[in-house]
Specification:
alpha/beta; 6-stranded parallel β-sheet; 3-stranded parallel β-sheet; 11 helices
Amino acid sequence: MIDLHSHILPGIDDGAKTLDESLEMARIAVADGIHTMACTPHIYPGMYMNDGPGIECARFRLQAELVGNGIPLRLVVGADVHLVPGLIDGLKSGLVPTLNHSRYFLLEPSHTTPPPRLEDSVFNLIASGYTPIITHPERLTWVESHYPVFQRMVAQGAWMQVTAGALTGAFGKRAQQWGERFVGDGFTHILATDAHSTGRRCPRLSEGLEVVRRLVGDAEAQRMVSQRPIAVLENLSPTDYGLPQKEAERPSMIGKWFSKMRLAP
């Protein structure tokens, strides 16, 4: 499995605090069946002043520690990005990193307040050649009154990422119910951990994946943790992988991806 959303880099946001915690998170991920993880710390002006070059350096250092400790987890770069003025320019310059330097990036809306002109902003990002993956919509306090907005953004070409722990109740009954609705209604593209620690928000996908299997079947569940994440990291067209599918699976790209994996930093 591939996890496209984690806060495993130590000491740069509200995720892992120390290198030891990062290493333990990596061990948990590998034991759960995750072989590749995106390092996606927050970029939030005024609070988390991370940028592309700094995140890349932190990823390089942690990858070296993983190799030195014999932990077979491949790290790729990314960020958990807030919708702020100048975002498109930041993406173009590399100050705001996309996932593995692809057209895809994680876009985190405010948890408590709907961003003004959200649909227009997402449309402009897509028109500029990017595919925003909107993170954990099931956990937003304003999802009830804006569910059609998320449906329309998917129709525009945005992707949705549901948190595995939300589906198992780790964020409460409300987030669980909305997570199940996003998955069951066919508006979820990616399942990810959004891991922050070794505790309640640890990097495990498998339990949430079992819930997805019950809701939409094994083939679509695998697309959320394997085929679509591979398409993201390979920078493939979102139109080929965007909408949840119920028909026969596409030809697997897993062999191609494994052949290109390198664990050295």
